[in-house]
Every structure is written in structure tokens, then in C-alpha cells.
Design brief:
Largest sheet: 6 strands, mixed
Enzyme class: hydrolase
Number of helices: 22
Shape: globular
CATH topology of the largest domain: TIM Barrel
Strand order of the largest sheet: 12-19-18-17-15-16
Distance between the termini: 14 Å
Subcellular location: Periplasm
CATH superfamily of the largest domain: Glycoside hydrolase, family 3, N-terminal domain
Organism: Bacteroides intestinalis
Family: Belongs to the glycosyl hydrolase 3 family.
Radius of gyration: 27 Å
Structural class: alpha/beta
Bound molecules: beta-D-glucopyranose
Keywords: Glycosidase, Hydrolase, Periplasm, Signal
Length: about 775
């Protein structure tokens, strides 16, 4: 083994603001304008810019604002921005108060959680990531920005880029999964989609907001808002890159997280918000809190309300979302000398800069064109984009060959022929809101077609589609209440035995069963952690009863997170995981079930066999006592479950098969300034054309610190016609070999590496190379 010397390549310095930098003359004009404006502002008006209140039309946290007083607060100059005010007419009316009735006529910003579409729902973010198609993800964000901006929204609280290795955490649904390299690519694509070209020249470009900074995806025990504690090395090597990537892509705003980072809540964490984000990464935009999180600070036990509010400002928090803490406490704190005016000025300037950059001082009604919704909501084009994205996001987990007639050779159950009687069974089969997933606030939640409707349209007169509900979606009424927190959900009031009997009767006369089951829309998302990741008990019972009929079953699985579907994997011939696909769910499901679209999605988070394996992730380290095969005494493992995942990161099947050649490297040595090409030839050996996500992983064989066994360092989604081959090349530069060492220097070290290429994080072919000094 080559003795390694550290090559210090580059510290991550001030690359951040590149994409959002303005031309110097424009920046000078902005500074002059804002300086003049601020010279006229009172202390209260400046603090008003830092105060964000809710419009209350959408509920995303505990409300503090008093809706009746909203206009009065705006008129007095006491509000700088709003969230959750829904509807362009309402936004227009509120903006009118700000620019026609307040003393300095400063326009408001209107923010909302536009997470996976606005009126046209796209698949949930975890599903979008499963497409591994950055163009598709950018299109989703662009389409969402166009629709949201037509409704008065000029700021989305997205992308959420929190890495998580814990599917108990309900918010796994909002991010891109467990890998920082992929997460960074997704972050960049989304920022580009929302913000468009630098300059916000059009009224469809809106401010993006990367969140939740930082490490929100690593709560102890997977419990939302729980303690986070990790080493700086883990932070820098595994968790921080996607936020940094968003900053590099020019994201205009950052939302801090509810959790603590190094024992200090992110909201009041100066190291995080100032040293790292602004100084090291060069972020120039504004930082806002998560929902009322300044009010959480005393509960974290770091001081009284006044001192913690001041600490949040000192840390670099510009906007207080809905806590009213800045509003109530800062004026007095400035007057009594506890807070220097310069700190208020700094934060106020950043808010005004965001408004200036959007062009709101020139035209405060830029996003208030009341004629746009009719033209731009839920259009044919947007729906087609959503349908395409949905089909591409589905992950085919299993597709066994079966035959019910020994005289007929077995063949994969999917795709289905459009013939015979197709029984759709399960509560997700005829439920519209269930298609949408969490974090979606359209005007009409009954807009999506049901699975039954989609399949009927697809088969026309060629086949019969029948439906039975089969079971309740939840184990109990109490569970349902917790999930829907008072919101309405569709319930079947018949006795459970009657619901099941009807389903078995329907199944008896069918040629194939499509079991539409899984999590309900609100079972993942905020404050929706789970300690058991099985299908809800009534759904398991239904599946077992259906399996006893001997009919072939396709499980069409709805979920916002990885699930421990061991029984289902072992006992059902086909499983198509569709996540929450959005408004076009029904049509996209039909596209894939009948083979008009060949599935190509791949998992971006590991699926565990058991909750006890969590945290589980593909890019782990070897340990000194790795277990090669289950079970070996005195090796790192469990008595009752192997270390293998149920489905690994990067996994997903197709209706065709792909065969990988060995990995060819164009050289076996590389210098830090040089590069290598790693190539494979992928052959489509089946009968259908298809897309394949070819994945490159790298392992640093021996370094100054322990490195993961493999890390994703490249991926390409390629289209390969049946019978044809495609050569796929990956360029390996020293950038891909860098990591943060014990001194938190970003380095690559000479020595041996493995380049591994394959169809998922487990089935890989490998070649060796050496980085020389
Ligand atoms: C969530 C954020 C969201 C905010 C505003 C909070 O509860 O954590 O993700 O952006 O509410 O709705």
C-alpha cells in the first residue's frame, strides 16, 4: 500500500454567492436605493421587515397571528413578509395595503411551502429524487414556480435538502434521501427551476429557500424535532453538502432548522448561520427561522425569551417567522442598548435586498396578475409533465415470473395485458386526496382521478375494472385522528367484516388483483414519525386474505418513506412502489401497469428489513469486525436479522434486463490535476426499450481517517433500445476523491481507490486505480 500524504487542494471558500451575484452597477444602484430608504425608516419599521406573519389560509404550524389585525399591522409598517396567504386576489389586496397605505410603501414578500407542485401536484420529493433525472426535477420546480407565481407567491420554502438515514422520520418524504452527492444535484436542479436565470427578470421566477439548515434529518430515534448530535466530520462529509450545493446554485434564502447543532439550536447558532453559511460558503441572501422557532429557544434551555431572541438575531437570523419575538422584544432591546442598531440594519437590509432583487420596488404587483390563474393552473401541459414525472418516479421492487397454468411458460406478472377482469382492491383505489401526498395545498383536493378511473380509461372496452375497498387504511380511529389532526378523511362506516367479504367476493371473479395499499397522505411529512414501518395491520390482513385466493397480486404501494414490507416481498409476485404520485397518479399508474411506460425509478434511501437496523444506509464504514455473512460470532451484526437491507440504495427493476460489462479504466494511475475515465458497456438484453440509471461509486481504500466502503460519485440515466448496448463514461477527477480530514480540510489523499459501477449500490463491478502525488 502506498503511504499517503495529504494533498490539500482547496478549502471550501466563498464559492457560494457566485450565481446570485449581481452586475456591479446594478448592485451599486440597489445599495444606494436601500440606503436612502433605510435612512427614512424608524426602528419599528426596520424591525417590521424582520417580522413574518401567517395569512392562515394554510396550516403549517401553530398559529400566533391574529388574522383580524393583519391589515392594521401591515399599514403600520410592522410586517415585512407573509406566509400561507393563499390566492392572488388576497395577495393583491394585502400588497395594496402595504404599498398604498403604509408610510414608506414597502412591498411585502409572500411565501408558501410549494414543495411538489402548486395546483398541479407532482410526485412527492422523495419520489422525484427516485427519477435520478435532474431535468425532470428542474421541470417540476419550474412548473411549480409558474403556477405559484400566478397565485401571488414570490417565495417558496423549498428545496428541503436534509439528508436522512432514518425512515422513521416522517419528513424523509420531503427530501432526496440519504446520499449527499445525489442530494446536492437535486438541490441545484430545484433552485434553478424555481429561480430561473439570475436576475428575476420575469414574473414566473421566485425566490427559493433551502431548508432546514442544518442536519434536521438526523433526529435521535427518528422523532421529529428531536435532539441531533453528530461529529463535525460526519456533518461535513455526509450531511452538509446539499445545503452548500444550493448556495452554490445561488439560492436566495435559507431557513434554519428546529433542531440543535452542536448543542445550540440552529435558530440561534452563530457558528452555523454566520461562520459557516455566510463567511465560509459566502452566502449573501437572507436567513429566516422555521415556524415560530424563536419561541422554542427557551424550551431548549438556553435562556429566557428576551436573551434567546437577541441571540437569534446575533447569530444571523434575519426574519422571524410567526413567533412575534422580534416584533415584541427587539424594539425595547435596541432602546435599552442590548442590541446595537447596526444588527437590525444588517438584517433589514437583507430583506430589502431580496425585495429589490425580485423587482418589487419597481412593480409591487409583479406577482399579482389576477388573470394568470385561469390561464396557468392545472393546464394540459403541466398535467402531462406531472404524469411523465410520476411514471418515471415509480420503483419496481419485484416482478416475478409466474404462471397459473402449468402448460403455459411462466412470465413476469407485469406489465399486465389489457384483458379479463382486473380487481382493484384497497382503500387507495378510489380515493382522490390520497394520490397527492403531504405538503400540498391546492384549491381543490378532489381534483385527481382515482386509480380505478385511470385504469378504466386505459383499458377502454378491452377489460373490466372492478373495485372493492377491502379494509380501513388505519388500525384505529385514534390513529387516523393523529394522522389527520382534525382534518377530514374518507371513512367507510360498514363493519370491517363486511368490507373484507365484499373484497374477497370481487377477488374471486378476477383474473388479477391490483392491491392499492400503503401509507395515507398525511402519514409522512412533518410531525409524522413512526416506530413501526409495516403496512397498517388491517392492510396486512387484507393482503393475506387476498393471497389465499390464489389469484396473482400486484401490490401498488403508496408511501412517503421506506417500509419494512418483508411479508409482502416474500409472498407477492409483483410490487410497484408509486410513493405519492400527485394529481396524475391514476394515469401514470396505468401507464406503468400496462407497459406503456417502462419503470426506471431507483431508490434513494435504503429500505430496512427491520426498524432495529435503523439508521441504515449504503455508505457505511467497514468497522474492525465486519460480518461477511450472517451469522458470525464476534462480528458486527444482529442475532435476529442479517445486516442486509430489504432493498438497497439505488435499487429498482425494469421490464427489461440490463447486463453490465467489466469496468474499464483508461489508466491505472492519476495525478491530482489529472483525470481518469471509467467506462462500462450496458446491454439491454430484454425485449423492451428502457432507461437505466448507471451508478458510479468510489472507495478510498486507505486514508488518514476511516472512509466509507463506497460513495456515490456519479450517475447517468441512459436510454437503451432492446438488444442494443450503450457505452457509459464517467470522468473521475480529484474533486470526486476529496473529503474532510480530521482538521476539517477538504483534501484528497494519494493511494489506492476502487471505482465501482453498476445498477444499484450492491450489484457492482469494480476496477482499481491509484492517485499519485
Ligand atoms: C416546517 C417548514 C415550513 C414552515 C412554514 C414548518 O413547520 O418545518 O418546513 O417551511 O413550517 O410552513
Amino acid at each position: 500500500m502506498i503511504k499517503k500524504l495529504t494533498i490539500l487542494i482547496l478549502l471550501a471558500i466563498s464559492v457560494g454567492a457566485m450565481a446570485q451575484q449581481m452586475p456591479a452597477d446594478k448592485e451599486a444602484r440597489m445599495e444606494k436605493f436601500i440606503t436612502e430608504l433605510m435612512s427614512k425608516m424608524t426602528l419599528e419599521e426596520k424591525i417590521g421587515q424582520l417580522h413574518q406573519i401567517s395569512g392562515g389560509d394554510v396550516v403549517s404550524g401553530e398559529l400566533s397571528s391574529d388574522g383580524n389585525k393583519t391589515a392594521q399591522q401591515i399599514r403600520s409598517g410592522g410586517v415585512g413578509s407573509m406566509l400561507n396567504a393563499k390566492g392572488v386576489e388576497k395577495v393583491y389586496a394585502l400588497q395594496k395595503v402595504a404599498v398604498e397605505q403604509s408610510r414608506l410603501k414597502i412591498p411585502l414578500l409572500f411565501g408558501m411551502d410549494v414543495i411538489h407542485g402548486y395546483e398541479t401536484a407532482f410526485p412527492v420529493p422523495l419520489a422525484m429524487a427516485s427519477t435520478w433525472n435532474m431535468k425532470q426535477i428542474e421541470t417540476m420546480a419550474r412548473t411549480a414556480a409558474v403556477e405559484a407565481s400566478a397565485d401571488g407567491v414570490c417565495w417558496t420554502f423549498s428545496p428541503m435538502v436534509d439528508i436522512t438515514r432514518d425512515p422513521r422520520w416522517g419528513r424523509i418524504v420531503e427530501g432526496a434521501g440519504e446520499d449527499p452527492f445525489l442530494g446536492g444535484a437535486v438541490a441545484k436542479a430545484m433552485v434553478k427551476g424555481y429561480q430561473g436565470e439570475p436576475g428575476f427578470a420575469t414574473n414566473t421566477q421566485i425566490l427559493a429557500c433551502v431548508k432546514h439548515f442544518a442536519l434536521y434529518g438526523a433526529p435521535d430515534a427518528g422523532r421529529d424535532y428531536s435532539t441531533v448530535d453528530m461529529s463535525r466530520l460526519r456533518m461535513f462529509n455526509d450531511y452538509l453538502y446539499p445545503y452548500q450545493a444550493a448556495v452554490e446554485a445561488g439560492v436566495a434564502t435559507v431557513m434554519s432548522s428546529f433542531n440543535e447543532v452542536d448543542n445550540v439550536p440552529a435558530t440561534a447558532n452563530k457558528w452555523l448561520l454566520d461562520d459557516l453559511l455566510r463567511k465560509q460558503w459566502g452566502f449573501k441572501g437572507l436567513v429566516l427561522t422555521d415556524y415560530a422557532s424563536i419561541n422554542d429557544l427557551p424550551r431548549h434551555g438556553i435562556g429566557d425569551p428576551v436573551s434567546t431572541t437577541i441571540r437569534a438575531l446575533e447569530a444571523g437570523t434575519d426574519i422571524d417567522m410567526e413567533a412575534y419575538a422580534y416584533h415584541y422584544m427587539l424594539p425595547e432591546a435596541v432602546r435599552n442598548g442590548r442590541v446595537p442598531m447596526a444588527l437590525i440594519d444588517k438584517a433589514c437590509r437583507r430583506v430589502l435586498e431580496a425585495k429589490y432583487q425580485l423587482g418589487l420596488f419597481e412593480n409591487p404587483y409583479k406577482y399579482c396578475d389576477v388573470t394568470r390563474p385561469a390561464k396557468e393552473f392545472f393546464t394540459k401541459e403541466n398535467r402531462a409533465k406531472s404524469r411523465q414525472a410520476a411514471g418515471e418516479s415509480f420503483v419496481l421492487l419485484k416482478n416475478d415470473s409466474i404462471t397459473l397454468n402449468p402448460a403455459v411458460p411462466a412470465k413476469p406478472l407485469l406489465p399486465l395485458a389489457k384483458q379479463g377482469t382486473i380487481a382493484v382492491i384497497g382503500p387507495h383505489g378510489n380515493n382522490r386526496p390520497m394520490m397527492l401526498g403531504p405538503w400540498f395545498y391546492p384549491h381543490d383536493i378532489q381534483r385527481a382521478a382515482t386509480v380505478v378511473e385511470g385504469l378504466k380509461e386505459a383499458v377502454g372496452s378491452k377489460a373490466k375494472v372492478v373495485f372493492a375497498r377491502g379494509c380501513q387504511p388505519f388500525e384505529s380511529e385514534e390513529y387516523a385522528q393523529r394522522v389527520y389532526f382534525g382534518k377530514e378523511f374518507e371513512k367507510d362506516n360498514r363493519p370491517d367484516t363486511e368490507i373484507l367479504a365484499e373484497a374477497l367476493n370481487v377477488a374471486k371473479n378476477a383474473d388479477v388483483i391490483i392491491a392499492t395499499l400503503g401509507e395515507s397522505t398525511e402519514m409522512s411529512g412533518e410531525s409524522s414519525s413512526r416506530s413501526i414501518l409495516d403496512l397498517p395491520k388491517p392492510q396486512q390482513d387484507l393482503l393475506k386474505a387476498l393471497a389465499e385466493t390464489g389469484k396473482p397480486i400486484v401490490l401498488v404501494l403508496f408511501t412517503g418513506r421506506p417500509l419494512t414490507i418483508n411479508w409482502e416481498k416474500a409472498n407477492l409476485p409483483a410490487i410497484l412502489n408509486v410513493w405519492f404520485p400527485g394529481t396524475e397518479a391514476a394515469y401514470a399508474i396505468a401507464d406503468v401497469l400496462f407497459g406503456d411506460v417502462n419503470p426506471s425509478g431507483k431508490l434513494t434511501a435504503t429500505w430496512p428489513q427491520s426498524v432495529g437496523q435503523i439508521p441504515i444506509y449504503y455508505n457505511g464504514k467497514n468497522t474492525g469486525k465486519p460480518m461477511d455473512k450472517w451469522f458470525q460470532k464476534f462480528r458486527s451484526g444482529y442475532l435476529d436479522v442479517s445486516n442486509e437491507p430489504l432493498y438497497p440504495f439505488g435499487y429498482g427493476l425494469s421490464y427489461t434486463n440490463f447486463e453490465y460489462s467489466d469496468v474499464i479504466l483508461n489508466d491505472s494511475v492519476m495525478s491530482p490535476k489529472g483525470q481518469l475515465t471509467a467506462s462500462v458497456t450496458v446491454k439491454n438484453t430484454g425485449k423492451r426499450d428502457g432507461y437505466e440509471v448507471v451508478q458510479l461509486y468510489i472507495c478510498d481504500k486507505a486514508a488518514s481517517i476511516i472512509r466509507p466502503l463506497k460513495e456515490l460519485k456519479g450517475f447517468q440515466k441512459v436510454f437503451i433500445k432492446a438488444g442494443q448496448s450503450v457505452k457509459v463514461d464517467f470522468q473521475i477527477t480529484s474533486d470526486l476523491l476529496k473529503f474532510y480530514n480530521s482538521d476539517l480540510e477538504y483534501v484528497c489523499e494519494p493511494g489506492d481507490f476502487d471505482a465501482m459501477i453498476g445498477c444499484n449500490s450492491v450489484e457492482l463491478k469494480s476496477a482499481k486505480f491509484t492517485l499519485v502525488e
